[in-house]
């Protein structure tokens, strides 16, 4: 990734994904915001990425709850047998 102010769409999408997993530097946040102001496609990608991350997080939470519930039921069956 070049260090100039203008970044490519490829660099912008990489920063969007990176932003969802870790904190960006001030410079990277500025360059990403600047690019998103000018590029409707990358802005749309950022919104879609946020939705996907949110749904993946919910799926992860649901799976954890169901696993714990299943484990509890299995333990109860073994204790009552």
Apparent shape: rod-shaped
Query: If helices are DSSP runs of H or I spanning 4 or more residues, what is the number of helices?
Result: 3
Topology, number of strands? 0
* SSE string, helices as H and strands as E: HHH
Helix content: over 70%
Structural class computed from helices and strand pairing: mainly alpha
Distance between the termini: 62 Å
Strand content: under 5%
Cα radius of gyration in angstroms: 21 Å
Low-confidence stretches: none
The overall average pLDDT, rounded, is 86
What does this structure look like?
The protein has helices spanning 9-19, 26-38, 40-80. It has 81 residues and is mainly alpha-helical. Helix 1 (9-19) crosses helix 2. It is rod-shaped and about 70 Å long. The model has no long low-confidence stretch (mean pLDDT 86).
Task: Give the secondary structure arrangement, pairings included.
Elements: H1 9-19, H2 26-38, H3 40-80
Helix pairs in contact: 1-2, 1-3, 2-3
Summarize the structure.
This protein is mostly helical and 81 residues long.
Key features of this structure:
81 residues; mainly alpha; 3 helices; rod-shaped
